[in-house]
Design brief:
alpha+beta; Beta-lactamase; 2 domains; 8-stranded antiparallel barrel; 6-stranded antiparallel sheet; 8 helices; globular; binds 2-acetamido-2-deoxy-beta-D-glucopyranose
């Protein structure tokens, strides 16, 4: 029993805000099974980012898998398990699952905003439905409920009614580092003296919890983010302090800054980040000038040469197919799942830059400059169409590349047929 609950606790990490308190009407359906069966066959194509048990690399799919294991072991759906094993005993009566019994445009919901071309706009609710990815982060909650969740952790697994719903030893094991976090992975979060006036450091990963320290106090935390919604939950168990911060607009580092501020107030320390300097953070401690990624200057005006050579479907067996098509104006348009966009010419004939339009426009158009995706095409023989494309995103660092191979015309026709039948 407690193993299922452990899995639930592992997975119930990403929580957002609603203030609606109606009673849930759970349905006993398992909706993530089929995806997981499919995922299991495809996972072999996921390239290892390190040696087995050597390092930590966050993977939402693994939370989805853990959620599915909990469903199979208990015979109940993910949503029912959350309700019966966590929300009900903890009286988290406001909490529910996005796309299941609440939508982000519901009454009393903190609506989802995004930055598009320097404007703050309301985004389409459809991009917040993560199905079948709910165990990786789809819980809508309220401040009151999150206090109950934090308090339950601080009481070491005991509800306010005194019921033990998870073995304390199991919980402690979750907060204990099992993998060392390599400093390169988390440089943005690390603050050390003498550069900074205080210290903050992530050093390990437990079961779903990053283990850290702030001003010398042990901290465990987990974050969550889907487009607009960004959350972090911190436990400073030695201080009996839990902090939950959530936003409905992507505001970068601000959550971490708010955490420092709240914790400083709690500790009775003068906040080192305040209204005078918080907006410039990490300046003046870090020189960020000259670090902004490339901008529109990489785009060369004019038409893409031989656009027909790029047209086709490119497959990545894990991440699905990218379709490049030419429209009536000889422009190259891309469709990749929910992502649609347009390709632009660069000085290199085989390198095209993509900007995203439609639902997910905010991904490449947050402000004045465009943050393009780099699509680099290769082919062995100049007389044939491009055979491969490598997708990279400057924002994500040089290591984040994905390779796609051209799908033959016959295979593309078969794929289209399958898509039509779904
Ligand atoms: C939560 O709902 C249960 C069942 O309806 C009710 O008994 C309990 O009082 C509620 N708790 C809170 C804090 O609203
Ligand atoms: C909690 O788990 C530990 C380790 O598995 C075990 O030794 C202990 O008996 C458990 N305690 C209870 C109350 O079940
Ligand atoms: C913010 O902190 C700095 C450095 O400690 C201090 O000089 C400044 O007066 C503070 N501002 C406010 C509004 O407290
Ligand atoms: C900050 O970095 C830029 C670019 O690397 C450099 O030109 C500038 O001198 C640096 N400023 C300071 C104060 O170190
Ligand atoms: C081709 O696509 C571009 C960019 O989306 C659009 O502006 C243009 O109107 C399209 N042309 C036709 C003929 O569809
Ligand atoms: C783009 O980069 C160039 C050179 O690095 C710079 O002069 C220009 O201001 C930048 N434009 C935008 C919109 O950021
Ligand atoms: C695009 O990516 C390729 C290889 O991944 C790289 O060689 C090229 O410099 C990149 N171009 C731009 C403009 O980012």
């Amino acid at each position: 029993m407690s193993t299922v609950l452990t899995l639930l606790c592992l997975c119930s990490l990403t929580l957002w805000t609603t203030a609606d308190g109606k009673v849930l009407t759970p349905q006993l359906t398992s909706r993530i099974g089929a995806f997981v069966e499919n995922l299991m066959h495809r996972l072999q194509y996921l390239t290892a980012s390190g040696q087995f048990r050597d390092e930590y690399n966050y993977n939402n799919w693994m939370y989805l898998l853990a959620g599915r294991v909990a469903e199979v072991m208990s015979g109940a759906s993910w949503e029912d398990l959350l309700h019966q094993r966590i929300f009900q005993p903890l009286q988290m009566n406001d909490s529910r699952v996005i796309g299941f019994n609440v939508e982000v445009d519901a009454d009393n919901f903190a609506l989802p905003y995004v930055h598009v071309r320097n404007d703050v706009v309301l985004s389409d609710p459809v991009i917040y439905n993560l199905h079948p990815g709910e165990p990786a982060g789809s819980i809508a909650s309220s401040a009151d409920d999150m206090v109950k969740w934090l308090s339950w952790h601080l009481r070491e697994g005991v509800t306010s009614d005194g019921d033990v719903i998870l073995n304390k030893t199991t919980l402690q094991d979750m907060y204990t580092p099992h993998v060392i976090v390599s400093p390169q992975k988390l440089t943005a979060d690390i603050m050390l003296k003498p550069q900074f006036p205080v210290t903050y450091q992530d050093y390990g990963y437990g079961y779903g919890w990053v283990t850290s320290s702030y001003r010398g106090y042990p901290v465990v935390w987990h974050s969550g983010g889907i487009n607009s919604y960004n959350t972090r939950l911190y436990l400073l168990r030695d201080l009996d302090l839990g902090v939950f911060i959530t936003t409905n607009l992507n505001v970068g580092l601000t959550i971490q800054e708010i955490f420092y501020y709240i914790t400083d107030l709690f500790l009775g320390e003068e906040p080192w980040l305040n209204t005078t300097n918080a907006c410039q953070f990490p300046q003046p401690w870090v020189n960020t000038t000259g670090q902004t990624p490339s901008n529109d200057t990489i785009i060369v005006p004019g038409n893409i040469e031989n656009p027909q050579d790029f047209v086709g479907q490119y497959e990545n067996r894990l991440f699905g197919n990218i379709v490049v098509a030419q429209n009536g104006s000889n422009e190259l348009l891309v469709t990749y799942g929910r992502i649609t966009g347009k390709l632009h010419k660069t000085k290199d004939r085989n390198v095209l830059m993509m900007d995203i339009d439609g639902l997910l426009e905010f991904l490449t158009h947050p402000g004045d400059s465009v943050q393009y995706l780099n699509l680099t095409f290769t082919r062995g023989d100049q007389n044939v169409k491009y055979q491969q494309l490598v997708l990279s995103w400057l924002e994500q660092g040089p290591s984040e590349t994905l390779v796609y191979s051209r799908v033959s015309a016959a295979a593309a026709a078969a794929l289209n047929l399958i898509n039509l039948m779904r």
